[in-house]
Amino acid sequence: MSGEFTQWLADWRQGDLSARDRLVDALYPELRAIAQRQIGGERAGHTLQATALVNEAYLRLSGLDRIEWRDRVHFVHMAARVMREVLVDHARRRSAHKRDGGERVSITSIDLADGSGDDIDVAALDGALVALERFDAEKAKIVELRYFGGLTIEETAAALDSSPATVKRHWQVARSWLFEALADQR
């Protein structure tokens, strides 16, 4: 089936919108699971639902005409990144209307260096990931693939053409880095 995804991506790149639709239909359960994981960490009563998050990400992704899709993992990574952007945009809009600072996300599933699961402002998390990307793009990509994309160590290693041991080591460093970067938020 992996070959099918790659072919659909190539066909989409050539302008075949039905290939894009087949790809999204085939990946919808995985995209919805990613959305549920991302929203699952949000505060109680969060107004954005997983279906709406997937739909918004789909709209944004379908507007990316110039992207050179490589494979299913690349597509899922980009979808996870777009979902993160949607959540951050949503949090910023809410925080503009509220005095208390907006949306918070539990980062238990990132499993920070101290094992904390404190709530972190989603905009602060995004800012920390942007800073991590400037500091070390590979570690930031690992966080996106693991946390936002839901990939395993082995899948992440394959996506980055790296060894699982290297990914695991970089994942541990990235978690520690995020813990330090977000220390002021707790």
Automatic annotation (TrEMBL):
PANTHER family registered for this protein in UniProt: RNA POLYMERASE ECF-TYPE SIGMA FACTO (PTHR43133), SIMILAR TO RNA POLYMERASE SIGMA-E FACTOR (PTHR43133:SF39)
What Gene3D superfamilies is this protein classified in?
Answer: 1.10.1740.10, Winged helix-like DNA-binding domain superfamily/Winged helix DNA-binding domain
Name it.
Sigma-70 family RNA polymerase sigma factor
Q: What's one GO MF term for it?
A: sigma factor activity
The answer to whether keyword Hydrolase applies is no
Organismal lineage = Bacteria, Pseudomonadati, Pseudomonadota, Gammaproteobacteria, Lysobacterales
Stated family: Belongs to the sigma-70 factor family. ECF subfamily.
Coiled-coil region(s): none
GO BP, sorted A to Z: DNA-templated transcription initiation
Keyword field contains Transcription: yes
Q: Which organism does this record belong to?
A: Luteimonas marina
NCBIfam families referenced in this protein's UniProt entry, alphabetically: Sig-70_X6, sigma70-ECF
Q: Out of the domains of life, which is the source?
A: Bacteria
Which segments constitute the RNA polymerase sigma-70 ECF-like HTH domain? 4-183
Keyword list, A-Z: Sigma factor, Transcription, Transcription regulation
The record ties this protein, via SUPFAM superfamilies, to: Sigma2 domain of RNA polymerase sigma factors, Sigma3 and sigma4 domains of RNA polymerase sigma factors
